[in-house]
Amino acid sequence: MAGACPPELAVAVAETGGMGGAGVLQFAPLRIAEWVEQFRAGSSGALQLNIWIPEPPVADPDERERRVAEAREFLGRFGTPDDAPGPPPPAFDAQCEAMLAARPTVISSIMGVFEPDFVRRLHEQGIAWFACATTLDDALTAQEAGADAIVAQGMEAGGHRGSFDQEAAERTDVGLFALLPRFADHLQVPIIAAGGIADGRGVAAALALGASAVQVGTALLRCPETGTSKEWAASLDGLAPEATVATRAYSGRLARAAPTPYVRAWTEPGAPRPAPFPDQLRLVGQLRRGEPDGMDEVNHWAGQSAALATEEPAGEVVARMWRDASGLLA
Ligand SMILES: Cc1cc2nc3c(=O)[nH]c(=O)nc-3n(C[C@H](O)[C@H](O)[C@H](O)COP(=O)(O)O)c2cc1C
After folding, report:
1. Is the pLDDT confidence value at 127 over 80?
2. Distances (CA, A) of 55 to 59, 86, 236
3. What is the mean pLDDT of the chain?
4. 194 alpha carbon to ligand 1 midpoint, in Å?
5. Matching SUPFAM superfamilies, A to Z (predicted)?
6. Lining residues, ligand 1, CB within 6 Å
7. How far is the CA of 131 from the centre of ligand 1 (A)?
């Protein structure tokens, strides 16, 4: 979970028999190395490093400019942006080299596939590649490109949707119960279920439907190791599945979040469409820098099973999920 993955959380998960993970999207190469060092100081367990695949910019520059101007004006109601150019995002290629150098158990991708040369190199080093997919077409593309396992992400999931074609994300919102049997019937590689799994019942159901493992996000967001802000943790407490919102308001890409005033504002009649990715992300970053105290609801990611997230330590959450699932499967 990019932005919600301190080494302490990964250590707690790995030490309980799971696979710890880091979303390195915003990490510079040096930070990737440091993070892995911190993880290894606490655990010799399995480790996954994850990154978003970059996409080509949106086609029509005039349309893009118009939408950026509209979004910028609308964002003015939340405060005054700091228009100074912020730090540039870390370079994807350098991040990939840093992930290889760190020799994790798994390197995983979302929103596309790696180049063949990178896949060859990670395999030569004995690292497995897990690729996130939200449709069978995308899963087959990833399998063909050499993915060793597919993360089947249902539309229940918190955070960003892993669609390869981001423009199609709303039209291809398949729930995990439909996605898993479809993947199981057509893929040769193992499947990892993600989306709305937050207790032993979800784990057991996913395994019964054809998954070999599960990937959990939202259920760990209230754990003490995660370091989620007080406001974010409170917005998850008792949050109904139907109250979560799939929104492009944070980054220009579709992501599931809690219904904060910020998110709701973008659904009001007359609100513009958010700017395309990555412009919306940049605009929100500028606003956040300009209003560091007033924008605490950016970004309250939440999956549809948020109400099942507890404040237990992460190791206890993972142990309970597996214990309860084992009981149900027996
Ligand atoms: C705060 C947060 C950040 C996330 N960041 C990433 C990410 O960087 N890369 C990724 O592949 N998935 C990311 N995800 C999605 C998760 O990998 C997973 O698909 C999702 O959490 C599963 O659904 P659940 O939240 O209902 O458990 C994120 C999810 C959350 C909640």
Report:
1. yes
2. 11, 21, 31
3. 95
4. 8
5. Inosine monophosphate dehydrogenase (IMPDH)
6. 1-4, 23, 25, 50, 110, 132, 153, 156-160, 194-197, 215-219, 301, 303, 305
7. 13
